[in-house]
Structure to design on (682 residues):
DNA sequence: TTGTACGCGTTATCAA
DNA sequence: TTGATAACGCGTACAA
């Protein structure tokens, strides 16, 4: 808090012999004050170095013009693009944005929700953490008639809530199908935590593609983890126990990339011996050799859409019950790691 | 704002026939209330779904327990590590963190400063934007006796302010020296905007290393830009006009990486024909082929230290005048792009 | 167009 | 240990 900046509307009021209510109106560009007084007041305000106290203002008006954003990790490329979309739309609409990262921890997510709620943000955009299987913190926030829009990781617990996501099933299906079309017969899958819907969908898409092409599903070929860099390596090690494997579809790029690097050290030729497809279109996927075929999620657009929805909900709280959701179609980006030479 | 959550301490007060001041004390775990009443109050509070209003509390106490952070771009790896350090220390110390990105725009930086100031954050950590050559917004904030600590990009405009940075000169000197020791005679430099101190230092370090090894400085070998991906490519193109160039020290990894990729498409062998060193230890630097020799900045530690300093300043506003700064030593990470085969 | 008066929810101060 | 009261800075009905 600015201990030094003690200038309030009352100081301006006294300095000009104008009532503080008029000062308030002038500083808010209300039409209910003459142009002349307004200019006089605004001039004095800058002269005195007046700095509005949003705490008081927000307390009085019961609005903060602020949107809270909770995501697992800001450094992840996909979320960074989502944030860019959120900020662009939010600023256009006159909202500030407070970005918080849960670091995939439920405990942190709960603390952040409480903090945002007690600071009275006007609404929350959330992509839940991997640990989030209980939803009480979100439920109580929603039950108090607060707007929430889910991004990327919709929750079945709130079918009535708006959410923006992508068609994970289709993306996975298409990726797996591509490998099949390239002649791969034994395709492995690095799957994510199965308590999370989107990773379930990705696994289903993989399995569905196999089935529809009359390839039997081998459970040994499915390696579940949280898809960290280390997981990519350890899963790649396990994968090598099945020398017949000639394709890999990983539910994210991180694990795909570290797996490729590990496999290369073991003398495996990518894609000749094992073709690889990832998910997320991480910047590294373009640089690694061979460049990684992957799935691009329209993060920026997702952020924009989610923010538009949230702002709409904020402005029309009566629409609360209405379910506005959107499922976008991700794009398969074909690079070298999936191609036959 | 939660329109639904109308529960205040007064509601609890009425429900229990206890004065609201006692309720306030109980909810703040004040020792000045009996254990029995406190428990009764806290029970009732959760029962009614009470959610503290921080706006009111902060207005009254004149503190927000919140630190504002202004950085150019959260997605950049270095800043992501800085943020991690900031958050860890801040939470330990009981502070919330509000992260804002200027996107290297002075205009946005000013708006963010105003917003943070009017929301009465307790202090600000800032890494100024590339555009920031005027400092009025920061000056007026500091002049109002608000704590500020500069990170990574200290400003000569505020010699009395604390800042955490690294020894850019030494890092550059060492990098350039390494290239010289590897026998490179014609070393180019991708330099950053020279209105920014740290890029000046990096250029100076480069030039100093050449001089001290009796290599004359060729101004044609120095290419200035904002070091974006596109700049890396265009500078690489220009660089090819000087076929004698056999070494490149880039003031960041982004430009070094795109340059390497461009040069490879032109059939240039890295490092055989041109050895390359970057700056920042971006995750891509490890994956690209050849892996990129680069300079690692201790971002996490910088974030921690800066936050510790800021918190100290917040708690001891009298120390304001005292200049606490720290210059850390970055680490040269030697990979393949600088090594002779 | 401007002024009066009050309240937003909380906490600090003083008194009981 | 608890209660009564005022105040933080601002915005807004209502009156003038």
């Amino acid at each position: 808090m600015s201990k030094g900046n003690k200038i309030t509307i009352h100081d301006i009021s006294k300095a000009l012999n104008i009532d503080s209510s008029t000062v308030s109106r002038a500083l808010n560009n209300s039409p209910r004050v003459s142009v002349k007084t307004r200019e006089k007041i605004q001039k004095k305000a800058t002269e005195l170095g007046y700095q509005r106290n949003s705490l008081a203002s927000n307390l009085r008006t019961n609005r903060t013009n602020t949107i809270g954003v909770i995501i697992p990790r800001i450094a992840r490329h996909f979320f960074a693009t989502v944030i860019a979309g959120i900020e662009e739309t939010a600023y256009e609409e006159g909202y500030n944005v407070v970005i918080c990262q849960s670091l995939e921890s439920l405990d942190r997510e709960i603390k952040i929700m409480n903090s945002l709620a007690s600071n009275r943000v006007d609404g929350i955009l959330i992509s839940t953490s991997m640990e989030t299987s209980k939803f009480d913190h979100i439920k109580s926030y929603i039950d108090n008639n607060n707007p929430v829009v889910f991004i990327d990781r919709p929750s079945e617990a709130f079918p009535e809530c708006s959410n923006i996501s992508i068609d994970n099933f289709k993306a996975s299906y298409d990726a797996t199908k591509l490998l099949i079309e390239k002649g791969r017969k034994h395709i492995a899958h690095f799957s994510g935590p199965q308590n999370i819907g989107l990773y379930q969908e990705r696994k289903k898409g993989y399995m569905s593609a196999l089935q529809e092409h009359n390839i039997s599903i081998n459970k040994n070929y499915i390696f579940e983890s949280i898809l960290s860099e280390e997981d990519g390596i350890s899963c790649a090690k396990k994968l090598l126990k099945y020398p017949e494997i000639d394709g890999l579809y990983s539910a994210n790029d991180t694990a795909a990339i570290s797996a490729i690097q590990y496999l290369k050290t073991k003398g495996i030729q990518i894609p000749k011996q094992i073709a690889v497809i990832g998910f997320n279109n991480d910047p590294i996927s373009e640089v690694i050799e061979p460049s990684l075929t992957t799935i691009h999620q329209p993060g920026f657009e997702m952020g924009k859409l989610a923010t538009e929805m949230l702002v709409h909900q904020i402005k029309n709280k009566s629409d609360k019950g209405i379910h506005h959701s959107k499922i976008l179609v991700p794009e398969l980006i074909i690079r070298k790691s999936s191609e036959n030479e």
The first helix of chain B runs from residue 9 to 16.
